[in-house]
Amino acid sequence: MKTRNKPVSKKALSSGKKYRLWGNKNKQGLRRIQALRDIPKYGVEAGDLGGWVESETNLSQEGDCWIGDEAKVFGRAWVFERARVYWNARVYRDAEVSGNAKVSGVLSGDSLR
To answer: Fewer CB under 10 Å: which end of the chain, C or N?
Structure first.
């Protein structure tokens, strides 16, 4: 699901952040992210809604990393650099997704050991 161009306030756009948490928490305690700047590498435009996170510690505000579609990142998992998590992916526990990695399935910290 790609939700384009939901309204974004000028204050939010000028915050210097890449994204913000948007809307209410779902039943799992996760919130959607909303892009505050374009990320051309992934076709993301300011205002687009992305995937779901437990908190801002799950997705870096730096670089071009992005969580899209219905993907969920939670626990101590972290997405950073240029990585992309998308479709119905689940990334959790201590998993770290970085570099040019793309995750569209399930990745937990246990998967890395």
So the answer is: C
Contacts 24+ apart (CB under 8 A), 61-67: 61/17, 61/18, 61/19, 62/18, 64/39, 65/97, 65/98, 66/35, 66/39, 66/42, 67/33
Torsion on CA atoms 16, 24, 85, 61, rounded to nearest 10: 20
What pLDDT, in 10s, does the model give residues 14-73? Answer: 788 999 999 999 999 999 999 999 999 999 999 999 999 999 999 999 999 999 999 999
Residue from 56, 70, 53 nearest 18 by CA: 56
- Measuring CA to CA, which residue among 56, 61, 6, 48 is closest to residue 31? 56
The pairing of strands 96-97 and 90-92 is unpaired
Q: What is the pLDDT of residue 22?
A: 95
Return the DSSP state at 47.
T
Helix (H, G, I), strand (E, B) or coil at 37: coil
